Amino acid sequence: MNNRQPPHSSFARHLCLSAVFCSLLFLPACNTGDISSSRDFNELIPRMMNASKTKTPVEAASNLFNVTSADERRDAVAYLQTQKWGHEKPYMDVYKVLTTDPSPMVRGQACRALGSSRDPSAVEFLLRCLNDNDPTVRRDASWGLQTTFSDAAVDPLITHIKDDIDRQVRINSTKALGNSRDPKALRALIAALDDDDAAVIHIAWNNLKYLTGQNLPKDDSRAWLKWYQQTYATPAATTKTS
Q: What is the DSSP letter of 153?
């Protein structure tokens, strides 16, 4: 018997019921402003690799509700999101609940699971995490929006490109905004050419070239702005009569 098959039927029902339990357990913690220490990548990566090698689907899924160990909850999400069935509805429902986990590393891993799903229903939860107090969660949420995107993300991403104090969040948000051809997204990318971070500038420039077909200089935001104004000028501005 292949114990690597997805735990459907009765176990899927258990997942849904457990998700309700988790929501009752974790939602109050979101309002406490709980901020744990940043994740230790020297410890995180080996644990994820080991989780993917040793856990059966049932073991991994049950660990999503291990209230005594944030490490186990994180590892379970990291394993399940890589499985071909790991983005089916019961699991997606759990990832959404875990975006409210008290541990920032669990919230962040849940964002990565949602972000790798390409499911539009996940955008709402990624946007909530984009405003998380912990920068590691915001990094994972903005990373997720690069692949799981909707127009609802445009304004929040613009805000974080301009105002987020974390460099990686601004970089990820600039990448994610490249999913939109909305004129205000293009205008924000032009503004990002004057950013003080070279990575933000380079990503914004690449996005602009891809989205517009133009190849204006990276260090000339005025040229880009002139093109933008000429392209998106209103008829009233271009057909004035005496």
A: G
